[in-house]
């Protein structure tokens, strides 16, 4: 008997400011006669975060910026296991909702009213988690440079070591993820491989890449704590400023900086070409979502 293939979907709690707090968006699906959070299936090879933003736009007409990962829920749909990843998303613009056979109506409601209206307990649980979050004031995309071959096989200065073919592909896959936070600045550590990792995003967004030494690994003879303290301070400054920024740093900097900012000794090891979606409430880091 063939194994039952699971369904992977993604969506969001999309919010906008209101006079008495915030409103969140629900969708009505005529096929099921229900009210639910906007979501949809991943396309082949699609990153869940990209799928979440795409599905929100398709179902609601809202261009949304992801901020904090919310609970992942699981249930059975038409006899198959289904997993849905959710993010809190700020509405950045509304392109005009168009009803169709999949979604024929949307409603913007205060969270408490949305909890009462949704048709499924798991949606109510995701909304409750959203309601408990501190208000997000800033979001950063922090990535580690992509693959750049082996240091031992590079004859020049290590700061000049370029991305290899795998790294170039990783950089191009990162670009649409970086663009999701709608950064107004792109900041890179000094090495060539870090700047090259942001090149596809810079072309996509038409932004320059600014070099920032606070994101560099320690130089010979320098204490590692100096760099992680400098990086953590810079992330706090940028996160608290309220403008979205994307940054590329290095493997000996990112884990220590995130440990300092979270106060947790978690595993913040970041693979090459990987990264984090970071959410801040003022100067406080409240969300670390591994990409």
Automatic annotation (TrEMBL):
Gene3D superfamilies: Nucleoside Triphosphate Pyrophosphohydrolase (3.90.79.10), Phosphoglycerate mutase-like (3.40.50.1240). SMART domains: PGAM. One of its GO terms (molecular function) is bis(5'-nucleosyl)-tetraphosphatase (asymmetrical) activity. Keywords: Hydrolase. Residues 5-131 form the Nudix hydrolase domain. It holds the Pfam family His_Phos_1. It comes from the Bacteria. The keyword Hydrolase applies. The keyword Hydrolase applies. One of its GO terms (biological process) is AMP biosynthetic process. InterPro entries: His_Pase_superF_clade-1, His_PPase_superfam, Nudix_hydrolase, NUDIX_hydrolase-like_dom_sf, NUDIX_hydrolase_CS, NUDIX_hydrolase_dom, Nudix_hydrolase_domain. Belongs to the Nudix hydrolase family. This is 8-oxo-dGTP diphosphatase. It comes from Micromonospora mirobrigensis.
């Amino acid at each position: 008997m063939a194994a039952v293939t699971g369904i992977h979907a993604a969506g969001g709690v999309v919010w906008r400011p209101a006079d008495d707090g915030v409103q969140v968006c629900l969708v009505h699906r005529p096929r099921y006669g229900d009210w639910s959070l906007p979501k949809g299936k991943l396309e082949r090879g699609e990153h869940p975060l990209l799928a979440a933003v795409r599905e929100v736009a398709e179902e609601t007409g809202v261009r949304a910026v992801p901020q904090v990962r919310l609970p992942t829920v699981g249930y059975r749909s038409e006899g198959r296991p289904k997993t849905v990843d959710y993010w809190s998303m700020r509405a950045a613009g509304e392109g005009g909702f168009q009803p169709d056979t999949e979604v024929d109506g949307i409603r913007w409601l205060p969270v408490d009213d949305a909890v009462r209206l949704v048709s499924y307990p798991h949606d109510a649980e995701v909304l409750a988690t959203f309601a408990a979050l501190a208000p997000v004031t800033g979001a950063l995309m922090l990535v580690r440079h992509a693959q750049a071959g082996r240091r031992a096989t590079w004859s020049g200065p290590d700061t000049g070591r370029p991305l290899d073919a795998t790294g170039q592909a990783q950089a191009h896959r990162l670009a649409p993820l970086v663009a999701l936070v709608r950064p107004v600045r792109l900041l890179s550590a000094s090495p060539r491989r870090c700047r090259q990792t942001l090149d596809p995003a810079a072309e996509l967004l038409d932004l320059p890449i600014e070099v920032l030494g606070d994101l560099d690994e320690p130089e010979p003879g320098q204490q590692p704590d100096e760099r992680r303290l400098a990086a953590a301070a810079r992330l706090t400054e940028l996160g608290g400023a309220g403008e979205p920024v994307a940054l590329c740093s290095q493997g000996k900097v990112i884990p220590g900086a995130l440990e300092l900012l979270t106060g947790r000794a978690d595993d913040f090891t970041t693979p090459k070409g990987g990264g984090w979606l970071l959410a801040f409430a003022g100067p406080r880091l409240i969300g670390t979502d591994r990409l």
